[in-house]
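This section describes the prediction task in plain terms. A model, or a person checking by hand, is given the sequence of a single protein chain and must write out its three-dimensional structure as a string of tokens. No templates, partner chains or ligands are provided. The sample shown here is typical of the held-out split.
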Amino acid sequence: MLQHYLFKEGNDLRINGITDVNFELKIMLNKNYKNLLPKINQAISEITQEERNKIYTNRLLNPDKIDLTVIYRIGFFSSNTIFVFYLLEFKT
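The expected answer:
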């Protein structure tokens, strides 16, 4: 929450580190979507320790690191889709 407040106020201070304090994952959910709460809780409970460690390593220790594989996949799919439409346009 402090990190969010500082960013909102225009301060680019980054706060991260390892402490002995453990915080459980909490998600705020609008009461209009309370029917999603059991599904969200189930999804969180199904995350393995290995996956948690990967999330921790990739996102918390390297918050500025961007996973480019998703961007590459989107670009590849988009360019292939455009190419198919381009070919279909010449057939007609």
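For orientation: DSSP finds four helices and no strands in the chain.
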